[in-house]
Amino acid sequence: MFRHNLVVHESDLPRGKGWSPLTWQILEGYNRIPVTLIEAEEKVDSGVIYAKELLDFQGHELVDELSTEQAKATLRLCEKFVHEYPGIVDSATEQTSD
Q1: Which of 25, 29, 77, 97 could bridge across to 37 with cysteines, CB 3.0–4.6 Å?
Q2: Residue 6 has pLDDT above 60, yes or no
Q3: Per-residue buried b or exposed e for 35-44, using 16+ beta carbons within 10 Å of the residue's own CB
Q4: How many domains does the chain have?
Q5: At 73, which CATH number?
Q6: pTM for the structure as a whole
């Protein structure tokens, strides 16, 4: 019933598809985490990309702090979509990868 169903994914899509990307990247020692706003599709994490931003961590954050920053990024990206609609749809990029 909706024209757009948005997903916020904490990786530099198309790299990093899958579940719990923020957690896995933190466990792998990354401190700079991309957050990507995409269109939901039947195939997980495959929709067009509307926007991205980066989260920077120091490496000492607890899970609640990570979750708070993740939530703030989600809200910023969703607000960006709403404020830039419909132009943001026209400038979306397809995911391509090897």
Answers
A1: 77
A2: yes
A3: bbbbbeeeee
A4: 1
A5: 3.40.50.170
A6: 0.92
**Pair 38, 47: CB distance under 8 Å:** yes
64 falls within a domain: yes
H or E element at residue 9: strand 6-9
C-beta of residue 40 within 8 angstroms of C-beta of residue 2: no
What single DSSP character describes residue 24? H
Q: What angle do CA 46, 70, 26 make, to 5 degrees?
A: 85
Supply 15's token pair: 């790299």
Residue 82 has which token pair? 């709403």
